[in-house]
Design brief:
Layout (H helix, E strand, L loop, with lengths): L1 E7 L6 H13 L3 E6 L4 H6 L2 E4 L6 H18 L1 E8 L4 H12 L15 H9 L7 E2 L3 E4 L2 H11 L3 E5 L9 E3 L5 H8 L7 E5 L5 E8 L2 E9 L7 E6 L5 H17 L7 E7 L5 E5 L9 H9 L3 H9 L8 E2 L5 E7 L5 E6 L1 H10 L3 E6 L6 E2 L11 E7 L2 H16 L2 E5 L3 H16 L1 E6 L4 H11 L5 H15 L4 H6 L8 E7 L7 H14 L14 E2 L18 E4 L11 E9 L5 E5 H6 L3 H7 L5 E3 L10 E3 L3 E4 L2 E4 L5 E2 L3 E2 L1 E2 L3 H13 L6 E2 L7 E5 L3 E5 L18 E8 L3
Protein name: ATP-grasp domain-containing protein
GO molecular function: ATP binding; ligase activity; metal ion binding; oxidoreductase activity
Keywords: ATP-binding, Ligase, Nucleotide-binding, Oxidoreductase
Amino acid sequence: MEKVVAVFGYNNTRLYDVKKIKNILLAKKIGIMLCKEGITDEDRNVSAYCFDTKLHGSHQEIEQAYSNLQKWLSSQNIVIVGVLPFSDKGIVLASYVAEKMGLISDDYNTAVIGLDKFEFRKAEANMNTPVWYKKPRFRKVEQPSDLVQFYDEIGSPVFLKPTSEGNSRGCFLVNSLENMDVALENIKPYLNTGAIAEEYFSGCREFSFDTVAGRCWITEKETTSGNHKAEVQQIVPAPLPQEDYDRLIEAGKLVAKISGSKMGAVHNEFFLFPDRTVMAVEPNRRPAGMHIWDLAASAFSINPFELWINWSIGKQPVVDQALRSQYYVGLRMIQASTDGIIKQIDNTGINKIKDNYNELLEVCLSKSLNQFVHKNPKDNSEFLGHIIVQHKDPKKLKLMLIQLSLRILQFVKVEPVSTDNDKSVVQKVREYARKEKLLVLDCAYMSTYIENWWNTAKHNENFKENKESLKKLLLEKFKNNEQQKLSIVGVAGHHVSGVVLTGLFHTDDPELSHVVHETLSDLAKLRDIKYPHEDHKHLFIKPEGVKKKEWGKGAGRISPHCDDLYEDIDTDLLSLTTCRDNLKVSTLLFTADQIFNILSDDEVYRLTKIMPSFVSGINVEGTVKAKKRPILSVEHNNFFLRLDYRIDELTGLRMQVDNEEDMAILKKIQAYLMPQNAIKAGTEAGHFVVVANMKVLHAREAIQNLEVTCSLNLQTTPRLLFRSKGPRM
């Protein structure tokens, strides 16, 4: 029977490392066997022995996977002499197989700690640790209320993440109540398998503890400043004061013990704080990524993969040793200067750089001609490639890493995605948005005219006659050309995104408010549309809405949005009139210019290419409507901005995109759309506002400490507004 070492679980982006293992085993006359879920042709090209299997799950599922493996091994006439868990999800089945076969491995019973972040925090909490070892507060999140309660208890930002995912998938920083809903939506796909909220700390540096067969070292990490925090640089060994280095070694061994390591491969991640306290980020019973083992090979003159193989087959003495080196070795990813297509690679120029620098150990371009590259990579696969440099002086090493990566970049010609015409679109949008105004006009001088008129008109039950009578009065008494300003809201070339009229009346009377509202909406040329699935005219808190969010008749927060983006008829204008607001919760307004000012030209241009599905909530008919539309469009010397950050309790996000880079831009905008950045429409009776629906987003904060009993009586409800929305007449 042929002897094989089984590699359990790996991403195909790491096949270059699997091939290293294969070559080492070949020299030992041992074969390689690959075990993962979803075998591909790439895998079969590496090994003749590929077993497609579930890698983790319940104990019963692991037992069944082992039973299936035994049958398959018999059919192949091979015997496993060593196991190598190559990924987090591979450690469970790998350690069980080794235990059943009497082979060397890390502990099976604690394997879940390396896979489940909540189980790790529980085990960590029960361990005796040094005073400098920081343990964050944490809580398992099984339902939204768990996160809300934990956030309230902590009183500071918390970090929400899936318990069993890597590479930052599903992770979200909750730093305010305003983005709680977004965080919950972000984590929703992972709630079935588990999520955890942890106390969040800032102002730290990131390192990893790496070990194999007892040999250990510390690696310094650096991440990009973009939204996705991709790892851009690693240095082995970490250039630290000896006391800090030794402390991280001690912390690494402690976490390795918690996770059940028995001197196999470990990659534990840590934060080091300015006060020299240390906090574990997560344990990993597997090799490090990003070529860290290659850096260690150069720094310490060892072969980590051979140490790992020999450990697994019982041929490697385990030595508890913090490795020392004469050189620092660093890897830096090569980052494109713009989004675009690779049009030319000057290998001659790159080779000259390699010839001129003995310290430059490796230049690897992972992208080729005509491939798309990103200025802001979301993970390591989106970089152009990497360089590896060694030097005795860590400061000079860091400088060389930056300088040489930039010099290599000069020999890779990337043609930007944006053309001159695209740039002109961005410039045009910015110019239009800068000119747009939100006019706030004091109309207190009109209140006496309107109140006196109402004293007579309220006895007339003919609403249409009252509206025409009031319109005549307004046109006679307006002295600042208010009627003309109302009529040009959103019209191309006039650059008026909205008008707010304050102090029109003071009497708390729903009928007066209604007729004023309809009259001014007519002057604004707003054709109100009443859809059959909604009752949109009166906005007040219904008894059943006290705990509801994203609803005009609920007390919960309403996220920034444009109305009715899923409808066939465009809602050009939205108007609101305040009858009373004893709760003092203003409508929040955000202009397009505010949003564009926080975005780069590339990001503004990208908005023209993002085509979300805008989805309705579940309406009273129980149906959902959806429509794909661009977020930003330029038409007839005018621009239109479409955003909706509401989250329906049943259908989820009202604005749905699939691309992670698109989502990153939308989240960047959302992070800005906080109450402190809003223009407030006011809460006094007699305020009227009309805005261009696709130029100004509107929102409302949650109504806190609601003590007044909410009823359906328009005379007593504590907050009553009138609303109209629809196309321009």
